[in-house]
Amino acid sequence: MTKNRTPSYTVPGVGVEQAGDIIGHLQTRLHALNDLHLTLKHIHWNVVGPHFIAVHEMLDPQVDRVRDMADDVAERIAALGGVAQGTPGTLVAERTWEDYSVGRADAIAHLGALDLVYTGIVEDLRKAIDHIGPLDTATEDLLIGQLRDLEQFQWFVRAHLETAGGDLRTAGAHTENDAARQAG
């Protein structure tokens, strides 16, 4: 989690210490969503191969929804009395993950790497929901809605990676580059 962000005021029914804790978790979510938005556009711009148009067009609605999610998280931070830190420098300084590592590549290779990105985001979001749920049901509800959308996006990605037998071609991959190689 990021540094202490305890506000001087917050929404009724949530203490300022609780709000500071929630804001810290939301700030991490905001960074993840802003990073995901940029990663999706990077893939959109750098995807090639026979599945180009399908993947290229599949990603734009995801980009739009992820940007909306980031806006909702930033506005919740503000409603709780915090300051949403949305600058690139703050994102890079505070994130706990490495930058997306695949450049120009085949569509299926990018989807293999993107599957791992979504796995990390979904796992971290579930942890945030577990932590925030007992503190603030309104924020929990916001995050649960986002979780449903992100899991659906991952399902769309995985549909391209699944074998006829129901296995993922990227099973066991631990890095984006490994997943890209296995998928392609």
From TrEMBL:
InterPro entries for this protein: DPS_DNA-bd, DPS_DNA-bd_CS, Ferritin-like, Ferritin-like_SF, Ferritin_DPS_dom
Pfam families: Ferritin
Transmembrane feature ranges: none
CDD domains from the UniProt entry: DPS
Ferritin/DPS domain location: 25-163
Family membership: Belongs to the Dps family.
Protein name as annotated: DNA starvation/stationary phase protection protein
Species per Swiss-Prot/TrEMBL record: Streptomyces tremellae
